[in-house]
Amino acid sequence: MSLPHAELEVTALHRAFYPQSRLYGESYEPPVEPEAPGTPDDLLDVPGGTPSLLHVACHGSAGTRPTASALQPALPGDSADPPPDGTEPGARPDGGRLTVARLLDLRNPEQDAADGPLVVPSACETDLGNRDHDEALTLTTAFLAGGARDAVGSRWATQDCASALMMAVSHHCLSVEGHSPADALRAAQMWMLDPHRRNPGSLGGSLLDELNKHPKPDRPATWAAFVHQGRPGPAGDAPTRPRRARPPA
Fold first, then answer.
1. Quick check: is 59 in a domain?
2. 94-107: buried (b, 16+ CB within 10 Å) or exposed (e) per residue?
3. 215-228 pLDDT per residue, tens
4. Domain of 54, in residue numbers
5. 8-state DSSP, 165
6. How many domains does the chain have?
7. pTM (2 decimals)?
8. Residue 169 falls within a domain, yes or no?
9. d(Cα 56, Cα 162) in Å, to the nearest integer?
């Protein structure tokens, strides 16, 4: 609830591109009923197997150790349901956060990386290392090590209003125009830089209002933090094109 534009972001993505996707988390006016609070356990145990896309809008932070960097989705104690193992949230070693250490434990050697999901942790510092390994070991690279085909992360703290705009345009380029994840991100960043930018056709409601009132979306601080990791692939080789029935989350 401390990221008001995160709700605009996921609502816009659900309505414009992924109406069949599963929605997690707490919202004031969700487009559909959320399936779960969005705890780390929820995100890592999606029913039906690995999704084609996982987009997470929440807080994130680079840890004092690379393995301590974490996303901060819903805590296990945020809902009326008790934690799965019956312990109190404070007793969890990771405090209910989704850490690099936990992601590194996910690797399935039998999974085909070419068939892994696109993971977009739309949060602060998800591709940042504070020491030891520079950017070799981050949340973004940990998702890749866990089986993701592509991941998009951030190198510094981001503004949720600007991120919401750029993410909506990036998903437009991905799912409507058929770009690969790397090319879709670049196209969205070029759109942010364009002084004559226009609604690509997928922005509406409050997010469209943000486009009209945002003072300087072309400032590097608002768009340059996000980088692509994984398999660049040719244009049009988007992982969300049909391969098998796997709804995004």
1. yes
2. eebbbbbbbbbeee
3. 688 889 889 999 99
4. 4-161+226-230
5. H
6. 1
7. 0.83
8. no
9. 16
